[in-house]
Design brief:
Low-confidence stretches: 104-109
Largest sheet: 5 strands, mixed
Number of helices: 25
Mean pLDDT: 89
Number of strands: 7
Distance between the termini: 40 Å
Strand order of the largest sheet: 2-1-3-6-5
Oligomer: single chain
Shape: globular
Strand content: under 5%
Helix content: 55-70%
Length: 597
């Protein structure tokens, strides 16, 4: 239960008290600052509390946005302020100061809520002020202003605004024009029946898994059903976020589920397509694994670039200015969003091709489309990085180091190079990645490849031996991901034994989950995965070296078993730690607004 304290005498005919109760507040009335302080002290410390001027006039949804959003410790509107339990001490201090300053002066004609908001901000508390758009939120000073405010409220349909704001402001063409026009109404239907975003997210996952199962049958009817179910899963995937925004049902667990389930759905569907193709005599596991690797590396490029630049100073460039100028031309916005093949366009393409063609054609189209998108986005970001004069912070450097996922071998050898002059870190990472993948392709399993893996370890040490603050240092994590994942793919394909590529698919999926988990921890300012976990699973360089040694020592069949065992071990460790962290009380409130690619 939450408590709202109305300051001043209620205004005749006002719906404010009823509106607050409809939002779940227990309403109490205070005549002056001292009375408000007394009422505040009586509210249990584990409850949200709001202070609202009794003269407030505005839309119900404005109050909902300002007073009930669970993501923020403190939030305010004109004439209203609210705090969650973690900010209660700051509110109590501000209220005590106001009470002692005002004495017994009534607050009916004085906006106590706004003064408290200013006092909280002065104390260093970040008070969230939501964007209201056309919604009204005001504290009229006289009857004429009140009448004008009420007329303004009547002129705007807050339910229409609420529905419109449930949809993300920036989304892909397919999602904007083919999904959101009706999925927002599904979200409202779910809200009115008490369904939660987590339930819709889970339904989306189950639907996608059923789609993968249909694809695994290998029949035309199964492929058609899989395509339709994949599209429906995406509709639900859009609905869960719209439901969260419509009803402000945000949660840490929900954000984590939404982020991780998207990857689980897509990659499970790839596996289903590969199984279905195998039933028809076509082995496309290498293509399925290649598609997962390419998509994961695309995301790492996005995450690394954003983390390197989100808090950089002097963060401008001519390339960025040109991009902003192009976005001001309507049709170029949609072209630029579509060619990067975001999740809506990508899933629509996969669904249609699954229903009408074969898994092999589907994967070929996916690989070509994602490769073009990756080239386009990465080239643009490289140009931005080379032309901007950004100064990267220690936080950005640490985030890139965490995303690099360096293990005990790099940790052991880094002190040797730390005192030496800095060289071109991205070049070392790029040379190591190219040499590793080329050697795996040229030599296959053997001790030559193990020696190359040793060189890869040394080049990885060189790449991260100094703080990652260079213009292109954000490329280091993607280079490491590509080297590790592609080495596993090539060695599994070289084994040429039934089951090796599916085992490699499982291993890469487990490691990729660990990398996605690291991203969302960093986004929530919770740091990276714990040190013990990174050491236990070896880091990127340790896993790459281990896989090459196993390939050299074991027969093809034994190598397949070893890959399977390694995949299971990594999956169990990362899932155990991830679930433990994200369901704990210390998990950060990360709210993903959709994948960048």
């Amino acid at each position: 239960m939450s408590t709202a304290i109305l300051t001043g005498q209620p205004v005749p005919g006002s719906s404010l008290e009823g509106d607050l109760r409809s939002l779940g507040f227990d309403v109490r009335v205070a005549s002056d600052a001292g009375d408000a302080e007394t009422l505040l002290a009586a509210v249990p410390a584990d409850q949200r509390v709001a202070l609202v001027d009794a003269r407030f006039v505005g839309h119900l949804h404005a109050l909902r946005l300002g007073l009930t959003d669970p993501r923020f410790a403190a939030a305010g509107l004109p004439g209203a302020v609210t705090v969650q339990p973690e900010a209660r001490r700051a509110l109590t201090r501000a209220m005590a100061r106001e009470s002692s300053a005002a004495g017994s002066v009534a607050v009916a004609t004085d906006n106590l809520a706004d003064r408290i908001t200013a006092a909280l901000a002065a104390d260093g508390l970040d008070v969230r002020r939501p964007e209201l758009g056309t919604l009204v939120a005001a504290v009229p000073a006289d009857p004429q202003e009140r009448n004008e405010a009420r007329q303004a409220v009547s002129a705007v349909d807050d339910e229409a605004v609420r529905l419109r704001s449930a949809v993300k402001a920036r989304d892909g063409f397919f999602t904007t024009y083919c999904i959101s026009p009706y999925s927002r109404y599904i979200a409202r239907w779910c809200a009115r029946r008490g369904l939660t975003p987590n339930q819709v997210t889970t339904a989306s996952l189950i639907t996608a898994l059923i789609a993968a199962g249909c694809a695994a049958t290998g029949t035309r009817a199964g492929f058609v059903a899989a395509g339709l179910l994949l599209l429906f899963s995406f509709v639900l995937d859009c609905t869960d976020g719209q439901l969260a925004r419509y009803s402000l049902q945000y949660s840490t667990l929900g954000a984590w589920l939404d982020a991780t389930f998207d990857r689980a759905k897509e990659y499970a569907y790839y596996a289903g397509l590969a199984l279905g193709a195998a039933r028809g005599g076509d082995d496309v596991w290498a293509l399925a694994l290649g598609a997962m690797i390419l998509q994961t590396c695309r995301h790492v490029v996005d995450f690394s670039f954003n983390e390197a630049n989100h808090d950089a100073t002097a963060n401008t460039s001519p390339t960025a200015a040109l991009s902003d100028k192009l976005d001001s031309v309507g049709w170029t916005v949609w072209v630029r969003r579509m060619i990067v093949l975001p999740i809506g366009e990508r899933w629509a393409m996969i669904a249609v091709l699954t229903a009408l063609t074969t898994p092999r054609i589907t994967f070929y189209a996916l690989l070509v489309g994602c490769a073009f998108a990756a080239t386009y986005t990465t080239a643009g970001r490289v140009l931005r990085s080379l032309t901007r004069k950004a100064k990267r912070t220690d936080r950005a450097a640490q985030a890139l180091a965490d995303l690099a996922d360096s293990g005990p071998l790099v940790e052991l050898l880094t002190p040797v190079l730390r005192g030496k002059p800095r060289r071109t870190a991205p070049l070392s990472a790029a040379l190591g990645a190219v040499a590793m993948v080329a050697a795996a392709w040229a030599f296959g399993p053997g001790w030559q490849l193990v020696l190359m893996a040793g060189l890869y370890v040394l080049l990885s040490v060189e790449a991260v031996s100094h703080p990652l603050k260079g213009a292109l240092d954000w490329l280091i994590p993607p280079f490491f991901r590509a080297a590790e994942y592609c080495t596993v793919l090539i060695l599994a394909a070289e084994a040429d034994v039934n089951g090796a590529l599916p085992a490699a698919f499982g291993l890469v999926a487990a490691v990729a989950y660990h990398h996605y988990d690291t991203v969302y921890r960093i986004r929530g300012n919770a740091g990276a995965s714990p040190h013990w976990l990174v050491r236990a699973i070896g880091g990127h360089e340790g896993r790459t070296l281990l896989v090459t040694v196993l390939a050299a020592l074991l027969t093809a069949t034994q190598f397949k078993v070893a890959l399977t065992a390694l995949a299971v071990a990594v999956a169990l460790l990362v899932l155990f730690e991830s679930i433990r962290f994200w369901v704990s009380s210390g998990a950060p409130a990360v709210h993903d607004e959709g994948e960048p690619a």
